[in-house]
Amino acid sequence: MDWIDILKCPITGNSVRMLTEPELADLNSKIALGTVFQADGQLFGETVQKGLISAEGAYIYPIINGIILLLKDLAIVDSQEKVIRDTMSADKKLVQDFYNKRGWHTDAAGNYEDAVIFEDLREVSKDYLKKCHDRVSQYLNPTGDYMLDAASGALQYDDYLQYSTGYRYRVCVDLSFQALSEVKKKLGDKALCVLCDMTNMPFKDNVMNGFISLNTIYHIPKEEQAKAIRELFRVLAINGKGVVVYEWYKHSVWMNFWLLPFRGVLYTKNRIADVFRKISGSTSQHKMLYFHAHSYQYFKEHLPPFKVRVWRSVSVPFMKGYIHSWLFGKQILNWLYDKEEKEPEKCGLKGEYPLLVFEK
Predict the structure, then answer these.
(1) pLDDT at position 119, please?
(2) How far apart are CA 9 and CA 125, in angstroms?
(3) Fewest CB within 10 A of the end CB: N or C in the chain?
(4) Within this chain, do residues 115 and 45 fall inside the same structural domain, yes or no?
(5) 3-class secondary structure, 232
(6) Which of 190, 214, 194 is nearest to 140 (CA)?
């Protein structure tokens, strides 16, 4: 279990170690008496089979079905004095609830709901999407001990598995227990699954030989997105390489042009829906998932040096609007991919999904 050496307590920043059998027995006795709490103040009532404890002994982190709970508000303590009452923000809770309850569950066809809602699963787009997934590998070291995947989700595409093939461990972090449960089924002992907050990584400095973060950062509250990427850079080892797939959304010059008519229609539909909500007496619109896209300039000002390359220059609405098999869709996407390969920086800056590439 040498991997314990890369972990740290997300509250104190100190090292952690495994609980001993006598410590587990003592802890479970206290749990039975009702004197053990989560760090957010809630009473803790589950028996702990395995867990970690911070070096000074103040905070305990259960390990459930191979998943290490290193989220600070889920730490367990044996007195009210140690309660921090620091709960997750509403926006982060929204993301966590969506992926626990919906996003990482499959439909009858075996597709995760996240992909059904947010991706283009049509046959006409399949080859292009695979080639975009594959291009991530060229910006990573091929081998190492630890590849950090933040947030890994459920590793919904087989293409994603290639990034850690040459690594001893794939360190998968996520806010969703359901996602990490899916990862364990797919990777077994190769996966180190850690339930944690990307803006407060429970890892020591310079311990990850590589990292990826695919289509995740824009679901983090806007004021914490740069902090999350700085955390990725902090844990990256010397000579390590890392990649963030981001989305420019309305900062994408090309998509602003091509999607203008579609966005006009959507704007009109939303305004009509607002009118009907007011008529019906409803005051708020249900929010499925938090999203905020910063500009390139924002990240340039708030992050360590990085290069911009392209992951995919077109969005899902663009593909569903313009790419069709009867309209030479595959040929258009092949041409587009060749253009991206020839001009990766330009396509990354002006298209929809850039790769932010880091080296230390």
Answers:
(1) 85
(2) 43
(3) N
(4) no
(5) helix
(6) 214
Supply the pLDDT for residue 98: 62
Q: Would you say the C-alpha torsion 67, 94, 298, 117 has a positive or negative sign?
A: positive
What is the per-residue pLDDT for 188? 94
At 41 the pLDDT is 80
Residue 226 included in any domain: yes
- Coil, strand or helix at 354: strand
- Give the domain range for residue 182: 96-251+287-359
Burial, 227: exposed, middle or buried (Cβ in 10 Å; 0-12, 13-18, 19+)? middle
- Residue 322, token pair as written in the block: 């313009």
- Residue 95, token pair as written in the block: 């993301």
pLDDT tens-digit series, residues 128-138 = 999 999 999 99
- DSSP category for residue 88: P
CA dihedral 348→354→355→360, nearest 10 degrees, is 80
Identify the segments of the chain with pLDDT beneath 70. Answer: 81-83, 85-104, 262-288
CATH number for the domain that contains residue 144: 3.40.50.150
